[in-house]
Amino acid sequence: MYNHSIKIFLYALAGLLVFGSSCEKAELYTYDHSANIYFDFTDSITGEYVDSITYTFAYDMTKAQDTVYILTRLSGIRVDQTRYYTAYVDQDSSSAIAGEHYEPLQVQYPLQANIGWAYLPLIIYNTADLEGTTVSLIIKLKASDDFGIENPDLIRAKVVFSARLEEPGWWNMWLGAYTRIKHQLFLLVTEQIELSTVGQDAPKNLYFVNLLTMMLNNPVTWVANNPEKGYVLDPVTEGSTAAYHFYHVDNPARTILLRFNAAAGRYYFIDENGEEVR
Fold first, then answer.
1. In angstroms, rounded to a whole number, what is the distance separating the alpha carbons of residues 92 and 137?
2. Same domain, 87 and 154
3. Secondary structure class of 206 (helix, strand, coil)
4. In 99-218, where does DSSP find H-type helix?
5. What does the DSSP assignment read for 224-277?
6. CA distances from 13 to 5, 8, 40, 221, 227 (A)
7. What's the angle, vertex CA 90, arms to CA 102 and CA 50, rounded to 5?
């Protein structure tokens, strides 16, 4: 009986020390304090407390959605039964739209028996507007039948997400004028996140540039020759001009326009500015 009590105390104390170190204002509760729930935004690498989670779809346009897992922790004693905590989105402080940018939150989330932590899964959508803008939402914990929320500094989670690409420092050296659509196509064709700016890497870098050039010169052939990539060309009407929507089968909402240029006798992708990608 004595050893069992000591173990309970040590488990509770370990959890509370994490709680106390996450924010200067947090109180170090005793092991018999009532159960509370809070968000833990401590960086797993640096150990520093951060105030938000940032996510981007920019490097993978095949994803129609993804899940951001927000760590929550217990301050109090672990028990031998599943308990439930609740959260809500502060709409007034959020630019993300429920049902459009993210899946509405569940009524409640479980904290499993004898566990001191859980993840709140936030499902976010890769919508077309995220290519040019960034949205955010504020999630707040609220008291439930099983948990309190006594520390107001640790019950708020901010999630920021987009699909917007930005011009990298190496781009101009190898690829000239920048557009986000050209950047997306570069990532798709080469599967390279970045190129170096070292002169001796020129042969390798020019090889990747050439892969993109070949695809831009004949995208219809590229799609036909790379079925494993999962991209399709869907004919669309643009007056009397032949055109296609180019997209991945798993994410048909994210399309790039491919339009025929009669004077040049070939198809061009159209960038976010309405210009031909060259």
1. 9
2. yes
3. helix
4. 171-175, 180-190, 202-217
5. HH-GGG-EEEEEEEETTEEEEEEEETTEEEEEEEEEEETTTTEEEEB-TTSPBP
6. 12, 9, 16, 64, 56
7. 85
Amino acid, single-letter form, for residue 249: V
The answer to whether residues 210 and 256 belong to one domain is yes
Does residue 242 carry a pLDDT above 80? yes
| Burial group, residue 224, by CB count within 10 angstroms (0-12, 13-18, 19+) | exposed
Q: Does residue 136 sit within a domain?
A: yes
Q: Is residue 212 part of a domain?
A: yes
The answer on 231 and 197 residing in a single domain is yes
User: For residue 175, which of 185, 163, 162, 165 has the smallest C-alpha distance?
Assistant: 185
Reference 97, options 192, 190, 161, 163; nearest CA is 161
Q: Are residues 116 and 204 in the same domain?
A: no
139 and 8 housed in the same domain: yes
Question: Taking the model in full, what pTM does it have?
Answer: 0.73
Return the percent helix, strand and coil in the chain, to nearest 5.
25, 35, 40
CATH no. for residue 111? 2.60.40.2030
User: In which domain, by residue range, is 45 found?
Assistant: 2-162
**77-110: per-residue pLDDT in tens?**
999 999 999 999 999 999 999 999 999 999 999 9
* Partner residues linked to 49 by β-bridges: 42
More confident residue, 42 or 168: 168
Q: What is the DSSP letter of 98?
A: B
Say what the pLDDT of residue 21 is: 41
57 touches 117 (CB < 8 A): no
**Percent of the chain residues topping a pLDDT of 70:** 86
Structural domain includes residue 78: yes
